[in-house]
Amino acid sequence: MASSIFHFATIEVSLNTGPDIRDITAELSRIIGRSGIENGQVTACMVGSTGSLTTIEYEPGVIQDFKDAINRLAPKDLAYAHELAWHDGNGHSHVQAALMGPSIALPIRKGQLRLGTWQQVVAINHDNRSRHRTIDVTLSGI
Fold it and tell me: How many domains does the chain have?
């Protein structure tokens, strides 16, 4: 019976004022390649309360549609109770990120990230200022 392998890594990404979206698929693929895992799972979690991870077709039209949809879900110009406490103008950022979620889990098959043809993994900054983000990555498998 094969022993389980666990591998840990981080991805660092600088993102502009939100919503800003960056493709991190290549970075995840490199981490998987170095891990020696043939079959298993990769989980990734963005550290911070105004960032999120998901998959999407990373194509300019879809990216713009996605940004527009995010802004419709939690518009910047609404009143947010968060502003009463902190007065930092990013109440919408916290709500957007919470709706999207900070983490993602994806399969590894035959040493490769298992995604659809037009599916990429993206990191999103929702904050009202540019941010340097850390994404913690955990791989497990055989």
Answer: 1
